[in-house]
Amino acid sequence: MKVLITGGAGFIGSHLADTLLDAGHEVVVVDDLSTGSLRNVEQHQGNSRFRLWVDTILNEALLNDLIAECDQVYHMAAAVGVKLIMNRPVETLETNVKGTELVLRLCNRHKRKVLIASTSEVYGKMMDGNGGHPLAEDTDRLMGATTKRRWAYACSKTLDEFLALAYFEEKRLPVVIARLFNTVGPRQTGQYGMVIPNFVQKALLGKPIIVYGDGTQSRSFSHVSDVVEALVRLMDTPAAVGEVVNVGGTEEITIKELAQLVREMTGSASEIEFVPYERAYGPGFEDMRRRRPNIEKLKELTGFTPRVDLHGILRSVIDYHQR
Ligand code: UDP
C-alpha cells in the first residue's frame, strides 16, 4: 500500500513511517519541519519507497495530489507541546483547525481512509469527582475559559473530532480518531515542554530538574512503539471506523515521583526544584491534575495493550539521550 503521513518527520509520525516501511509499504510524508526534523527521517534517504515533501499541510494543491495517489492517510501533523501552544496560539489554531478540515475534505473527495491523531487534552479539566478516572471516550469534558489560551489547543482538537465524526456520519468517510495520551520515546524533543525528555536531559547534565507546581499532578505515559502499533492496528480494524479510541498507558505517576525516579535511574545528583506554573508558562496557566486513560475500547477493537512499562520507557529515553 501507499500511505500518506502528515507530520511524518515529527516524533510519532517518523516512528510510524519506520514501522510502515518495515512492513513493506510505500510512505509519503508531508511535514513543514516546524517541530519535526530531517534527522528523524534521514535513515530513509535513498529508499525508493520513501518520499518527503517539506511543505505545510495548508498547501491545498499539494495535499490534494498526495491524498489522490495514496491508499490511506495518517493525519499526525499538529501544533504540539504546551509551551509552543502558549507561545504561538494563532499557528496552533490554524494548523489544527484549517489543516484537519482540509485533510478531511480532500480525503472525502478521493474517498481515502483517514486516521486522525487527537489528544487526551480534549478531556480538559476532568478529574476526580468531576467525571471520574480513568477517562473513557464518552466521558463528559470540561474546557477552561477562552481567556486562558492553553485551552485553545484542546478546543481545536475537539473541533477536529467533531468534524471527523461529521464526515463519517454525513458523508460515510471512513475515519478513525485516536486520542493519544502522553507519548514518550526516542526523538521526542524537550524543547516544547514535554516532561520526560526535559527531566532526563537535566538529570544527565547534573542540572536541576524543574517540577512545575507542587508535583502532585499525575500522568500516564506510553512508549512510542506501543502507540505506533496501536495506530496501525486501528487503521486496519474495520470495526474502528467512526470510533474515537483512547491510546495510552495506564500506569499513573505523579510528576514529583517521576523526577525522583529519573534521578534514581540516571544515578544523577541533580536537585529537584519546584517552580510555580506562571514562571514556566506565563500568567493564568491551568494544568490538568490527572490524566489516565481507560483503554478497554482499544483492547476490544484491536486486541492490543501497551507492552513497555514506565521503567522501559525511561530506560529507552535515557539510552537515547546518553547516545
Ligand atoms: N512538567 C514539569 N517540568 C517540566 C515539564 C513539564 O513539571 O520540565 C509538568 C507539566 O507541568 C505537567 C506534566 O509535567 O504537569 C506533563 O507535562 P507535558 O508538557 O509533558 O505534557 P502535558 O501532559 O502537560 O501535555
UniProtKB/TrEMBL annotation:
Keywords: Decarboxylase, Glycoprotein, Golgi apparatus, Lyase, Membrane, NAD, Signal-anchor, Transmembrane, Transmembrane helix. GO terms for molecular function: NAD+ binding; UDP-glucuronate decarboxylase activity. It comes from the Bacteria. InterPro entries: Epimerase_deHydtase, NAD(P)-bd_dom_sf, UXS-like. GO terms for biological process: D-xylose metabolic process; UDP-D-xylose biosynthetic process. Its cofactor is NAD(+). It is found in: Golgi apparatus membrane; Golgi apparatus, Golgi stack membrane. One of its GO terms (cellular component) is cytoplasm. Gene3D superfamilies: NAD(P)-binding Rossmann-like Domain (3.40.50.720). Residues 3-248 form the NAD-dependent epimerase/dehydratase domain. It holds the Pfam family Epimerase. It is a single-pass type II membrane protein. PANTHER family: UDP-GLUCURONIC ACID DECARBOXYLASE 1, UDP-GLUCURONIC ACID DECARBOXYLASE-RELATED. This is NAD-dependent epimerase/dehydratase family protein. It comes from Desulfoglaeba alkanexedens ALDC.
